[in-house]
Structure formats: structure tokens, C-alpha cells
Amino acid sequence: MRIIKIFIYLFTAVAFSQSPLSNGDVKSFTRGVAIEANNLETLSGDFVQTKYIQLMEESAVSKGKLYYKAPNVLKWEYSSPFNYKILFKENQLYINDDGDKSVTSLRSNKLFEKLVSLISGSINGKLLADQENFDVSFFSEGGKVSAVIIPRDASLRQMFSEIILIFSEDHRLNSVQLKEEEGDYTQIDFKNIKLNQKIDTAIFEN
């Protein structure tokens, strides 16, 4: 159950006032995101994750680093307030909980497999093109574009009623928000993002 809680803690969202994009703007925007995604080989940077719970006055803040290597190798390293590493590689989920390690086969757990596709697709932008598994609407606000994504899969929708990806004008992901049906949400803001720079292979070892 802890890994389920970690994923819930990792992604949740809040909606805000926006203007819908026209069909022409949607085509132009998704084309730009697709170009960025196709050119993306590696990504690294810092993240700040803030969890908002309705029954708690104070939010919970975590910090760490993110590493991505195309097509689907992804690592989250939490450094504050705890040391916790999550690595997705070769259809395996590796967890390092402050030295306590475990491995789970994604092929034997379809929910985890869908979660990995969701997370990787959020990072590289390819989630926007997955119309088979998600309904996507596009909005603009303050020079940024947000994609409001609703999972069609019932098991995912029980965890995340909405996923919101917020992009800058240059089609790069700034933050991720996901929303739980109960109203709690988490926002992850990305900082110091570096694209297509060499990442030490040791980073992707558990």
C-alpha cells in the first residue's frame, strides 16, 4: 500500500480559471509539443512537490531531483524531508527507501504499468497524444497553456480524477498538477531543467 500512497503523493491537481484554446491553436500547440518530445533524449532538473490536504492547515513540501532518458527510463530522487528513490527501467520498478531496496515487475502489475506510462508521458509530453486512454482539453492563462487530462481507465481515475500539465510558451513542461476525487491535490514545479545533456549512467542504477 505504501507505493500506492507514494504515487498519490507524487501527483494530484487543482483547476483554475482559463480560456479554451481554439482548434487551430490546439493543433499548433500539440505540434510544438510533439516536436519537443521527439527531440528529447535526456532531461534532468529539480522539483518541488507540494501536497495540499483539505483537513490539514499546513501543506507538505518535498524536494528532489528528476532524471529522464528516452524512451522510458525515469528516476525520482527525494532528498527532503526523506531519502526515497523511485526508478522505472526495463519494465521494472525499483524502490530505494533510505537503503531498503525492492523490485516490482511492471508486467505483473498492470496498474503500476499504467502509472509509469502516465508519469513518463507527462514528462515527455507524449501523454497529450494518447487519445485512446485519456480525454484532453486545452486552456490558456497568462501566456501558459494547460492540458487538462482525464483518464478513461477506471483504476487510474480512482487515483487521479484529473491530471493537469502546464506548459510555457516554448512548449516545455513547467509543472504537473493532479486532483483526487476527494479534493486533495499535489503540485510539482520543475526548476533548473536541462535538456539533452549527458547524464551519468550510474544515476539510473538502483
Shape: globular
Biggest sheet architecture:
12 strands, antiparallel
Q: Distance between termini?
A: 21 Å
Query: What is the C-alpha radius of gyration, as a whole number of Å?
Result: 16 Å
Helix content percent band: 10-25%
SSE class: alpha+beta
- How would you spell out the order of helices and strands? HEHEEEEEEHEEHEEE
Counted by DSSP, the helix tally is 4
The average pLDDT score comes to 86
Oligomer description: single chain
Strand content: 35-45%
Q: What does it look like?
A:
With 206 residues, this protein is of the alpha+beta class. It is 23% helix and 43% strand. The chain starts with a helix and ends in an 11-residue tail after the last strand. Residues 1-9 and 11-16 have low confidence and may be disordered.
Keywords:
206 residues; alpha+beta; 12 strands; 23% helix; disordered N terminus
Walk me through the topology.
Blueprint (H helix, E strand, L loop, with lengths): L1 H9 L8 E2 L2 H17 L2 E11 L7 E10 L3 E8 L3 E6 L2 E6 L2 E6 L4 H15 L9 E8 L2 E8 L2 H6 L2 E6 L5 E7 L5 E11 L11
Write a brief caption for the model.
With about 210 residues, the chain is α+β, with helices and mostly antiparallel strands.
